[in-house]
Specification:
This protein is α/β, with parallel strands linked by helices and 305 residues long. Helices cover 29% and strands 20% of the residues. The protein has a 9-stranded mixed β-sheet with strand order 7-1-2-8-9-10-11-12-13. A two-stranded antiparallel ribbon has the order 3-6. Strands 4-5 form a two-stranded antiparallel sheet. The longest helix is centred in the last third of the chain and has 14 residues. It binds iron/sulfur cluster (3 copies). One iron/sulfur cluster binds next to loops. Belongs to the organic radical-activating enzymes family. It comes from Enorma phocaeensis.
Length: 305
C-alpha cells in the first residue's frame, strides 16, 4: 500500500464538498502554494504546530515541557517558538491551559479503520445523497496506493466518493482511482500559465492536461474556480478560462468559489503573514461572471458549493 499519508482534519456534516451531507477527509501536503489558500496548514507534508499567542499568559509550562528547547518567553512575556527546532511532537499542547497550541497533521488510520469511522454517518449520506469527500491540501500528492484502497473499501460498503483535487499530480494517480470515484471536484485557478505561476508557484500545464484526460475518461467532473479579486476575476481572465474549458472539456458543471479571508488567523498561528490585499468579488461581479459562463453555453453554474 506504500507510505501512510498524513491527515489534518476530518470534517463531518459538510455541505460544501459535493452533493448532500458529506464527511470530508483533509490530507496534508500540496504541490501548489496559492496566495489565497485558506488552509495554510495543509500545504506542508509534515505535521506543524499552530500557536495562538494572543491568548498566552506566559505561564511557562510549555517552555519547561519542550524536549527540543524550542520555546522561550519573549520580551512581551509570551511564548515564542523556534520553528527550526520544533518537531511538532505535541508535548506542549495539552498542558497549555489557555488552549494556545495545536498540532496539525497525524498519520492516517489504516483504510479499513478509517472506513469504519466514516461509516458512522452513513444514514446521513443515504438520506441526503451525500458521501465521503477526500480533499486537502492535495489528497493525491502523497498517495502511493492508500487512496485506491480507501476508495475501493468505501465503494464496497455502498458509500459514494468524491475527490477534490488541484490536478497537479501524475495522471496515473488519478487514473487508478477512476473505478471507485463518483465525482471529481477539479480546481482550476487561471488559464494563463504566467499568471498561474505567479499565483500558485507552479505551471498549470499538467493541471489542464489531466482535466482533459479526466473528461475523455467519461468521469463525472465539476470544475471549481476560486474567484479572488483583483487577481483572477477580471473578464479577460474569465474569458480565457472559458475558452480553455470549451477546448479541453466542453460545458462541464462549474462552481465559482468567492474568496474569503477565514484562513488569515491560521497564517498568524504558523508565524506566516496573510495577504491583506485580496478581496471578495462584489455580488454584481459574481453575477456577471456567472452570466459569462451561461452565455458561453455552460448550463450548470453555481456560486459557492
Ligand atoms: S503553556 Fe500556553 S499560556 Fe503558558 S506560556 Fe505556553 S503558550 Fe503561553
Ligand atoms: S510540539 Fe514538541 S517540539 Fe514543538 S514546541 Fe511543542 S513540545 Fe516543543
Ligand atoms: S491547491 Fe488548494 S490546498 Fe493547495 S495551496 Fe492551493 S488552495 Fe491551498
Amino acid at each position: 500500500m506504500g507510505t501512510t499519508p498524513t491527515i489534518f482534519n476530518i470534517q463531518r456534516f459538510s455541505t460544501h464538498d459535493g452533493p448532500g451531507i458529506r464527511t470530508t477527509v483533509f490530507f496534508k501536503g500540496c504541490p501548489l502554494r496559492c496566495a489565497w489558500c485558506h488552509n495554510p496548514e495543509s500545504q506542508s507534508y509534515a505535521p506543524e504546530l499552530l500557536v495562538d499567542s494572543s491568548r498566552c499568559t506566559g505561564c511557562g509550562m510549555c517552555v519547561e515541557a519542550c524536549p527540543e528547547g524550542a520555546i522561550a518567553l519573549g520580551e512581551d512575556g509570551r511564548a515564542r517558538l523556534d520553528r527550526d527546532r520544533c518537531r511538532a511532537c505535541g508535548e506542549c499542547v495539552d498542558l497549555c491551559a489557555q488552549g494556545c497550541r495545536e498540532v496539525a497533521g497525524e498519520p492516517a488510520a489504516e483504510p479499513r479503520e478509517l472506513v469504519e469511522q466514516l461509516l458512522r454517518d452513513r444514514s446521513f449520506f443515504e438520506r441526503s445523497g451525500g458521501g465521503v469527500t477526500l480533499s486537502g491540501g492535495e489528497c493525491l500528492a502523497q498517495d502511493e496506493g492508500y487512496l485506491a484502497e480507501l476508495c475501493s473499501r468505501l465503494h464496497a460498503r455502498g458509500i459514494r466518493v468524491a475527490i477534490d483535487t488541484c490536478g497537479d499530480v501524475p495522471w496515473e494517480r488519478i487514473e487508478r482511482l477512476l473505478p471507485d470515484v463518483d465525482l471529481w471536484l477539479y480546481d482550476i485557478k487561471a488559464a494563463d500559465d504566467v499568471l498561474h505561476r505567479r499565483l500558485t508557484g507552479s505551471s498549470n500545464m499538467r493541471i489542464w492536461d489531466n482535466l482533459g484526460h479526466l473528461a475523455r475518461s467519461g468521469a463525472a467532473v465539476r470544475v471549481r474556480m476560486p474567484l479572488v479579486s483583483p487577481v483572477n476575476d477580471d473578464m479577460a481572465c474569465i474569458d480565457a478560462t472559458i475558452r480553455l474549458l470549451l477546448e479541453r472539456v466542453g460545458t462541464v458543471p462549474v462552481s465559482l468559489l468567492p474568496y474569503h479571508a477565514a484562513g488569515n488567523g491560521k497564517y498568524r498561528r504558523l508565524d506566516r503573514v496573510p495577504r491583506e490585499d485580496f478581496r471578495v468579488p462584489a455580488d454584481d461581479e459574481l453575477a456577471s461572471i456567472r452570466d459569462r459562463f451561461l452565455d458561453a453555453g455552460f448550463s450548470d453554474v453555481e456560486i459557492g458549493g
